[in-house]
Design goal:
Elements: H1 18-34, H2 38-49, H3 54-61, H4 67-106, H5 125-138, E1 143-144, E2 150-152, H6 153-156, E3 184-186, H7 191-201, E4 209-218, E5 230-240, H8 245-260, E6 266-273, E7 276-285, E8 305-314, H9 316-321, E9 330-337, H10 338-346, H11 359-362
Parallel strand pairs: 1-4
Antiparallel strand pairs: 2-3, 4-5, 5-9, 6-7, 7-8, 8-9
């Protein structure tokens, strides 16, 4: 029986020949260098490193060699495979970096671009209008005062010299809450806020009252182009020593010019309100024709003036009811509709557009007035 062939020449095994190993290594390195993306590199890995690749098949032949020949063949194949694996890792890192950089560019999202999938909301013009009015008076050194919309009958009527038989107390004018013995109403004006301010703060020489009171009010009016059972008012109250109608006129002239532009002034027409004496209706110069050649003006209808609100010197009975020394202090008060003011300011013809929640109307004003 013959023994193993110790003279076997490994060079004669074709896959293990040096030139064959070098050729397989060089082909793998060339393919790796030529791969343009990760998918191509994946295929290169299968072709040149996988189980059916030339170097893998050559590696299998080592086991069939005599022990003396295995070392040299193993070193040759190992060096070739190490070179290929190193090149693969380096190329993998390069292509992954390029892929990530490309993704950042191709899939970038500009978060500053406008989109109609989730429209940006806007603050309602009544909200921003009320804040604008408040800002005008705050700039004059006044304060903003607020109160509840469900008000005590005494504060809404009695404290303001509206007696028990006044028509404003009827069911046709006022929303009353149940049960009736609670004597609670949805406030018909923001004047109760003025009464609350005088009652809680009092008036002294060093602490006069200058407050503006914006808010919702309720009356049983029909809902049409010029009326609503819920609307918004702004009222002002000044209580100090030596207050006169001149102070009231100057305050309203400044308010009108800030809302409607320079040169817009007011005028007073005698009127009657239970909580002021004397009382006056406030008109403002037509902001369209400015009172000049007003015959053809559709806004003021040839009058040159537009009715705006009411005002007057606070009735001493109101001062006494709210704990103010009417012999020492006097004051003025005024009130007008915020809704009506905005209709003037923006040329609106129908009051209902302010309340119907149509986003096409509110977005036209943007986020500020």
């Amino acid at each position: 029986m013959s023994g193993p062939n110790t003279d076997y020449d490994p060079v004669e095994v074709t896959p293990l020949k040096a030139e064959e190993v070098d050729a397989a290594r060089d082909a793998a390195l060339a393919a790796i260098a030529a791969a343009q993306d990760l998918e191509e590199l994946k295929q290169v890995r299968i072709d040149h490193v996988g189980d059916r690749s030339a170097l893998a098949l050559a590696n299998r032949e080592i086991g069939a060699l005599p022990p003396a020949a295995r070392k040299e063949a193993g070193q040759r194949i190992g060096q070739a495979r190490a070179a290929v694996n190193k090149a693969l890792a380096e190329r993998q890192a390069v292509l992954e970096a390029e892929h990530e950089a490309r993704i950042l560019v191709e899939e970038a999202v500009d978060v500053t671009l406008p989109t109609d999938r989730c429209p940006t909301g806007g603050r309602h013009p009544l909200t921003t209008g009320a804040e604008l009015i408040a800002d005008i008076f705050v700039a004059m050194g006044w304060e903003v005062a607020e109160g509840p919309v469900i008000e005590a009958e005494w504060l809404n009527f009695d404290a303001l010299n509206l007696g028990p038989d006044h028509p404003a107390r009827t069911m046709q004018d006022t929303f009353w809450t149940e049960p009736a013995e609670n004597h609670l109403v949805l406030r018909t004006h923001t004047s109760p806020v003025q009464a609350r301010t005088m009652l809680t703060r009092g008036v002294t020489e060093d602490a006069p009252i200058y407050v503006v009171c914006p808010g919702r009010v309720f009356r049983t009016d029909e809902y049409d182009a010029t009326h609503s059972p819920m609307f918004h008012q702004v009222e002002g109250l000044a209580i100090d020593e030596g207050i006169t109608m001149a102070h009231l006129k100057g305050t309203l002239d400044h308010f009108a010019s800030q809302m409607f532009g320079e040169g817009i002034t007011t005028r007073f027409r005698p009127s009657y309100f239970p909580f002021t004496e004397p009382s006056a209706e406030v008109d403002l110069v037509c902001f369209v024709c400015r009172g000049i050649d007003s015959e053809d003006c559709r806004t003021c209808r040839g009058e040159g003036w537009i009715e705006w609100g009411g005002c007057g010197i606070v009735n001493p009975r109101v001062l006494r009811a709210c704990g103010v020394d009417a012999d020492r202090f006097s004051g003025f008060a005024f009130g007008m509709g915020i809704d009506r003011t905005l209709m003037f300011r923006h040329g609106l013809e129908d009051l209902r557009t302010l309340f119907e929640g149509d986003v096409r109307f509110t977005t036209a004003f943007g986020s500020e007035i």
